[in-house]
Amino acid sequence: MTEKTFGTRKVTIYPAKGDRVPVVYSSDYEESGQGVLRCCRELGAPDFHLVTVSNLSWDEDLSPWPHEPVVDRNDHFTGGADAYLQFLLEEVMPFAERALEEQVSARILAGYSMAGLFSAYAPFCTDAFDAFVSASGSVWYPGFRDYFVQHDFRKKPKAMYFSLGDKETRTRNPYLRTTDAVFLELLEECRRRGISAIYEKNPGNHFVDGDLRIAKGIRWVLEELPAEME
């Protein structure tokens, strides 16, 4: 395991033992690499390198554009996703892949909650990744559904994984209540564009089994990647 701090952000690298395996980049609310890897092993996922980025300014770094509070009055959606993506591409990725000292076969971007929203937004802004995991992603974010269906990907993803807890939309919040419907539309749009995609329901609300939900998405996209990328 290798760690490096960039300002307040911490990057942690968990290398796999195999040669030419994919690398998963995960944006974390709290660093959770060991938990995700444990769940991946229990699920029988293929080998991969894991790079986590934690200690983020959660609302600021991961929101695609500014918006007033939605969930509670302390929301601070400043629209910093483009700047955070630039940091990921220009600082995290070169550092991580130098540390791994080998060519990776594919890159996957994964995230939970607001980081899951970021994972669903990033393919419109960069061609650096081959597959995406949005586990319990905040796709309720105002304007995101329309953005997704109206814009072109920089590069057609090889696979996109969406998931949600089956109790997450049981809320009075009018935005959060739309999450299931939005995910269904994103799934339909991916399939319309010829992308391998799945939308999976998990038991529980938004605050349970985060590591497991991420791991399920990682396993699925790894198994969907074309053989020539393995």
Please name the defining characteristics of this protein.
two-stranded antiparallel sheet, single chain, eight-stranded mixed β-sheet, 230 residues, globular, alpha/beta, 10 strands, 7 helices
Structure annotation, total helices: 7
Roughly how many Å is the radius of gyration?
16 Å
Q: What string, H for helix and E for strand, traces the elements in order?
A: EEEHEHEEHEHEHEHEH
Beta-sheet strand percentage? 15-25%
The mean pLDDT is 95
**Which class do the helix and strand fractions yield?**
alpha/beta
What is the 3D shape?
A: globular
Summarize the amount of helix as a percent range.
Answer: 25-40%
| Order of neighbouring strands in the sheet with most strands | 1-2-4-3-7-8-9-10
Biggest sheet architecture:
8 strands, mixed
- Report how far the terminal alpha carbons are from each other: 23 Å
Unreliable parts? none
Could you give the count of β-strands?
Answer: 10
Descriptive report:
The chain is built from seven helices and ten strands. 40% of the residues are buried. The strands form two sheets. The protein has an eight-stranded mixed β-sheet with strand order 1-2-4-3-7-8-9-10, sandwiched between helices. Strands 5-6 form a two-stranded antiparallel sheet. The chain has helices spanning 33-43, 58-62, 81-100, 114-121, 144-150, 179-192, 210-224, and strands spanning 2-6, 9-14, 23-27, 49-54, 66-67, 77-78, 107-112, 131-135, 159-165, 196-202. The protein is α/β, with parallel strands linked by helices.
Quick summary of this structure?
The chain has 230 residues and is an alpha/beta fold. 35% of the residues lie in helices and 22% in strands.
